[in-house]
Amino acid sequence: MIAYCGKIISVFFLGSFELWAAVPVGLAMALSPVIVVLTTSAGGIAGAVAVIFLSDGLRERLFKRYSGNSGHRRTGLIKKIWDRYGAVGLGLLAPLLTGVPLGVGIGMAFGAPAGKLLRWSSVGTILWTIGLTVAGVGGRSGIRYFFG
């Protein structure tokens, strides 16, 4: 039981930083896909909440870095998403492109309302976690099918 709780806590904390790592780790630890989705999503949302509460000091540094003037390819993409779709687009795509905490920090730096950004980041986190988990389970099943 303690080992199982340790696995869940590990996936939760990993999910608060990076969904792309938390889902495969949870599946590799033989956790149920439903538990992986719930734990990873909760971790990602907790990371977003933490960034919103800590955003005052980060706001100016992130705005300077991601305002579109630095010439980085990813920076330009994030700025384009922000200009075209606002908090909704950033919230839905940040879990895929930058990770939830960094995406929320960038949105806060661009002046997005915290409630709207948290709401859409939560939806994006849940959707991407479900998608990654389905892909991981499907990939694992495919490997077992072809390679025994």
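(ticket continues) Second input and output from the same batch:
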Amino acid sequence: MTSTNVIGESEASDILSLYVAAVPSQPDPPTESIVWAIASTAEVGEELAVQVNWTAPADNGSPILGYRLYMAEEQSPSQILYDGSKSRRADVFSFTVRSGIQKHLSYQFRLQALNAVGLSTISEPLAVLAAVVPVAPTELNVTGSGQGSLDLEWTPPQETGGSVLTGYFLYYQKYTALLTAPEAWLKSSLISQAATTQTLVGLEADEQYRVKIVAVNVRGESPFSTSVTHFAGAVPSGLSPPTAVAGSRTLETIGIAWVAPATSTTDVLGYRLYVNEPTSNAVPTELVYDGGAIPNVYKAKVSGLQS
């Protein structure tokens, strides 16, 4: 600038540089980093922790001095959760909520930035469902098998993590892979969340498989269940009725003989013999010979009969 009097105009002063500034631009919504369980009490149930992150908006000519983070539970009004504008912490871009977060509830997080001019417009909300992955399903069992298939059943997880289940995945591998590739598990397509049974097909016939299951919700997959092991083959079939050994009958004993079944996709491991009560026409249920681990014996002596 210059000044003047009756003599004339002065020399120009040094230059003063000024910048026009405004409040920071509207921040992007915060982003969810992680949700995890931290406590469980009788009064409020299981509580979770939520970590949210954010990035700096444009400062519009004046350095950002800090941020305010707001939280609202369900339809409740927003409350200031963290106020970094007072402490002038412009270097903080993350905050972890460690109390007051209850499983099954939804929360909204919004952000404001502050500079010397003032506070920005509040951001759009980040919606967070307070949920973690389910616990593992239990009681996985093989209920039957066929050529290249296994029939399975399980009990749903007792705790779904705060979110409804979206389904299940079966993981399976050949038993021989335990030695060569223990981590090489195959994965089924998503199974309905209402299911408690499933037939696993497309297996190699008569091979032994290990199978385990996980439950799934919006947070991801549960831990694995305990695995089960079974052959993907059919039980023996075409077994003829046993016969009495000629001349073996006494007052209390008799010799019984049998032949191998017509069909067995794997080696026969052995045989079991059952009887019923005298004069009964019911299906025999009393086990009188257990050769379940003796494959090459085709005759047995039954004692304790009534004459």
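Agent notes: The two ends are 133 Å apart (CA to CA). The CA atoms of residues 23 and 117 lie 5 Å apart. Closing as not reproducible unless the customer responds.
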